[in-house]
Amino acid sequence: MIGVSGGAYTYIRMGMGNVMAFIYVAKELLVRNSIGLLVMLLTFSKYLVSMLPTCGSPQHLEKMIAALTLVFLFLVNSYSSKLATRVSVLTTLGKVAALLVICVGGVVAMVQGVTSELPSGFSGTKSDATPIAMAFYNALWAYGGASFLNCLVEEVKSPDKNVPKSIVMGTVLVIFIYVMTNVSYLAVMTRSELLQSDAVAALFADRVLRNFSLLIPVAVMISTLGATNNSMFGYSRVTFAAARDGNLPDCLSYVHITQFTPFAALALTVTLTLLYLIPADLGEFINLGGFLDAFFEACVFLSMIRFRLQTMKDAHRPVKIPLVIPILMFLINVYLFIAPVIIEPSLQYIYVAISIPALSILLYVPLVYFQIKIPFHDEIVTRVQLIFELCPPTQEKF
């Protein structure tokens, strides 16, 4: 229905106004994008380091590998969108193949009578409000890729047909594979082993595949490399769309004159991610990212409800779902946001809930509302354009 790139940013801007959209894109640009990339980059580097003959704490090596991998993917995405897409296709095939091997290996182990933690089910599970929210953060993180196609609708052929098909087929496939993968893990590993391992798939491979155990860590590396590439592809389009709308400096919407890639948006995302790499903590990143996502996902579903009932009720809808689904998802995301803040207050989440909107407003008022120019802005932008061969895009607004 809305054939413009930007995904959640575009829907929030149209459904809840420009100020809320700016807060969303500031959150994405300053925090969420970098967190998302770092989770996958650090997973990639942990698996690579697990295969190397290291001694002592390998944290510095992991971060160096993550930084070099990030720069490599930046060059790929800057050079060609087609090349980035091919990398995505190849790594996805490798990812699915590895997960299917794990699923089959788990089924074989269960047939042989190896069940480890499976008989105990969910014994010992915490049912308090905050632990449930934390569990959702991790689960929703794993399925968050379903929204990336909405970020680049303008680059998809026949989006009214291909985007819904891809999301539905992809999500169903991922649900099946992820559930079977976790069943396989719990069939051959104890919970403590699973939680303490930095490279769970590698431990599984050692137990089940033995002589071929090296295949799984390599496949996981291919998987995380592809996921990072996909995320960088999607994140840069959100920054691009926001800059084109005037919510970020115009220069962030500039594209390469021959390759048509959003070079400026990619460069900013990579720069901020490298800065976040210094204090990186994988577990905290996932929880913090899930917490921030919950609020704005609620905004997206509230916008969808407004489109249906108020602002776009007569628009042509290539896909129309029952209204109860966005209502239910709105309520779930409200719960996921308020659980760590109100039900069981946690200082770090309260701090984030206050600081992100406050900082966004401080940036919005002078830079967007009053359009105050930064000194020497035009001269710097002109030089950057000449060096990297960048130009403004065609204006496509909805």
Automatic annotation (TrEMBL):
The chain crosses the membrane at residues 21-44, 64-84, 96-115, 135-154, 166-188, 208-227, 260-279, 285-309, 321-343, 349-370. Keywords: Membrane, Transmembrane, Transmembrane helix. It is a multi-pass membrane protein. One of its GO terms (molecular function) is L-amino acid transmembrane transporter activity. GO terms for cellular component: membrane. It is found in: Membrane. PANTHER family: AMINO ACID TRANSPORTER (PTHR11785), SOBREMESA, ISOFORM B (PTHR11785:SF512). This is B(0,+)-type amino acid transporter 1-like. It comes from Biomphalaria glabrata (Bloodfluke planorb).
